[in-house]
Amino acid sequence: xxxxxxxxxxxxxxxxxxxxxxxxxxxxxxxxxxxxxxxxxxxxxxxxxxxxxxxxxxxxxxxxxxxxxxxxxxxxxxxxxxxxxxxxxxxxxxxxxxxxxxxxxxxxxxxxxxxxxxxxxxxxxxxxxxxxxxxxxxxxxxxxxxxxxxxxxxxxxxxxxxxxxxxxxxxxxxxxxxxxxxxxxxxxxxxxxxxxxxxxxxxxxxxxxxxxxxxxxxxxxxxxxxxxxxxxxxxxxxxxxxxxxxxxxxxxxxxxxxxxxxxxxxxxxxxxxxxxxxxxxxxxxxxxxxxxxxxxxxxxxxxxxxxxxxxxxxxxxxxxxxxxx
Length: 325
Prior knowledge:
The protein has 18 helices and no strands. The chain is an all-alpha fold. It is globular and about 65 Å long. Mean pLDDT is 86; it is low at 234-253.
């Protein structure tokens, strides 16, 4: 019942800063094994974290470290989904909480766990789970990290942005796969658009473009890139999933898996935005990696953004790019 009261920013701030309810909830998470209690507590904490001012306080109370143990509950999809959803909520727009998600699992530099982070554990949930909604929550968390690190003012970084991005990509070589899943799924067009935006952000930095260039040969990524830029979007595929589409509100995106599919004019707007972000991705790849690319790879990408048709199939282009390196 108390969770239903945490619906306004003022009420959330009062509960967190005056009543310290979040600390009680986090303690309950640490001590409870009752799935219903855990799910209810996570929902309550998620509501409390809606206010920008409360996110940091909840993070400071070891929320990420506490909820991390629930990411391994892939055999309990309801719990794992709630835990992933709360994580996305609490790091969205909060650079301090992004720092916490990227913290090493062990402070001991000689420990193997020092090279792994809480994000590593979350990405493991993505790999292990067969639940598509859990995979999308993890993927959207990755997108939220990229949005946060690229939109934050440099003065707000405790360490340089280059250092953070180096850590983000070097310790998580599989970071791009969740984003690929976002742009290749056809059930929720708005999640696909969110994925293209995140990939475009990823390509803007030296570290991100290097990571992206290394996975460009994956057929699902390059195929989606070519289709989106050439205007062959698979948005129409969402029409075969009526009742399972997505709606996004202004500000922090929210997904309702039971809302109707977007109208045709909304689909066209998303298609144009996806193409624009895919074009930005290629432009940034060429800008950051063009000098180290093979002539064939660079030529294929330049043909894409300049609208030149190729006599080669997508598979043939990929074979040539892979062979050329």
